[in-house]
Specification:
By secondary structure, this protein is mostly helical. It has 4 helices and 3 strands. Helix content is about 50%, strand content about 5%. A 3-stranded parallel beta sheet has the order 1-2-3, sandwiched between helices. Helix 3 crosses helix 4. The chain is globular and about 50 Å long.
Length: about 120
């Protein structure tokens, strides 16, 4: 089973609270589901894509989505990860960067998100 979460699970995303909350909830659900399926040998993969160049990204101009990946660029990597039964996959350099940074300096990401948000509402 694969769940498409978001790199927003690794940092604050104040311009899209509902989006970030729903993706983080999905991440938590998938994490909890793993323990129920482990004895059935069903793997759960959580995918955390970074900025994607999609129709949805038009709602977040300036949020690095214009230069984001096309979904089809990430699909081969995601499929390989699912085949290998990986638990978590960051299919692009930006999402991997956020994941690593959030593990070591989460406060920095929160500050950057806050300043980005402040610039957008002025």
């Amino acid at each position: 089973i694969a769940f498409i979460c978001s790199a927003s699970c690794f940092f604050s995303f104040p311009i899209a609270l509902a989006y970030a909350a729903s993706k983080s909830a999905l991440d938590g659900f998938a994490h909890a589901l793993e323990s129920y399926l482990i004895d059935k040998k069903i793997s759960v993969t959580r995918v955390y894509p970074g900025p994607m160049n999609t129709a949805h990204s038009q709602y977040y101009p300036g949020a690095a989505t214009e230069g984001g990946r096309l979904p089809q660029q990430s699909v081969p990597l995601i499929v390989k990860a699912i085949e290998k039964r990986k638990r978590k996959i960051c299919p692009d350099p930006i999402s991997l960067f956020y994941r690593i940074l959030s593990a070591f300096i989460p406060k920095l990401l929160a500050k950057k998100a806050f300043y980005f948000y402040q610039k957008r509402i002025r």
